[in-house]
User: Which sequence fits this backbone?
């Protein structure tokens, strides 16, 4: 199947907003290409291996958000996206969103699945956990726990601030017991938890493609006996109780999830959540407090927040 590729030029500040706009208008997937996300070969940090300068030079000057639509949906999609961008441009009084120009092209399905791989390199996401694309190599050091990952079209490579924050908090606070990963995406959080010692992990996602990709990644890591990936809508259909839950999803969903999740956690169970953009952090925190959680940790990276919270020990 062929796809139509829409590309919006924006800024680092506007990239997430544009990505969400494209998804709301039917995109099958999005990709953000931002030079600031790529490592500087002259100043390699602890989280990245060296990257070829040629790849960085090939990256566009403007931040670009790419989205893909099935060819038979292209005409309606382009019209809807143009209108949404016009409204966003009109509301962008300070110009922080950049040009918000739109270009179109076509792409074959196999190219769509491959075109982002050149920018996805192995990196250390936390003290012990390393994310390694299946097509790359890594010089394993003592104590390293390697997450083999081929995210495909599913969200969750570890490079995004929200995923990294969740992994950091899981590594710090997970101390055993059954774990639930709500909105598992690529399965990266479930895999991280299993590598950290979780013997029973359930990952749930509403997207059939994400479920397929997550199952493949779980198998790649040899963890099929420990991780059960299911298709489902948040907590619907779950009858078990969990000692630990993680959710890397949007802030309004976390607010909606906080109270019902208490019934699926053991008394005093832990909840790690992210996907929370700066303006929503205080509202999410209040939702957790209103549901009886104790906030154990609050972290921020860029414009994104994450919380670790303890469920009430004596829930009503």
Assistant:
């Amino acid at each position: 199947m062929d796809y139509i590729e829409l590309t919006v030029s924006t800024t680092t500040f506007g990239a997430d907003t544009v990505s969400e706009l494209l998804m709301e208008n039917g995109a099958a997937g999005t990709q953000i290409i931002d030079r600031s996300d790529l490592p500087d070969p002259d100043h390699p940090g602890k989280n990245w291996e060296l990257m070829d300068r040629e790849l960085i030079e090939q990256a566009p000057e403007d931040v670009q958000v790419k989205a893909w639509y099935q060819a038979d949906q292209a005409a309606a999609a382009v019209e809807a996206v143009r209108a949404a961008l016009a409204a966003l441009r009109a509301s962008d009084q300070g110009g922080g969103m950049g040009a918000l120009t739109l270009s179109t092209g076509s792409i074959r399905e196999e190219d769509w699945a491959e075109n982002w791989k050149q920018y996805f390199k192995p990196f250390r996401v936390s003290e012990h956990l390393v994310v390694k694309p299946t097509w790359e190599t890594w010089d394993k050091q003592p104590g390293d726990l390697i997450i083999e990952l081929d995210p495909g079209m599913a969200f969750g490579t570890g490079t995004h601030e929200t995923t990294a924050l969740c992994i950091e908090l899981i590594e710090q606070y997970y101390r055993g017991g059954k774990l639930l990963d709500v909105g598992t995406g690529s399965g990266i959080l479930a895999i991280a938890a299993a590598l950290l010692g979780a013997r029973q992990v359930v990952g749930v996602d509403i997207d059939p493609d994400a479920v397929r990709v997550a199952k493949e990644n779980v198998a790649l890591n040899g963890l099929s006996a420990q991780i059960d990936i299911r298709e489902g809508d948040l907590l619907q259909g779950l009858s078990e109780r969990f000692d630990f839950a993680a959710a890397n999803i949007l802030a309004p969903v976390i607010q909606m999830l906080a109270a019902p999740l208490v019934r699926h956690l053991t008394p005093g169970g832990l909840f790690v959540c992210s996907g929370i953009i700066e303006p929503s952090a205080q509202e999410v925190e209040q939702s957790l407090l209103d549901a009886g959680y104790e906030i154990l940790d609050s972290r921020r990276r860029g414009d994104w927040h994450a919380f670790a919270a303890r469920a009430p020990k004596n829930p009503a």
The mean pLDDT is 84. The radius of gyration is 20 Å. DSSP finds nine helices and 14 strands in the chain.
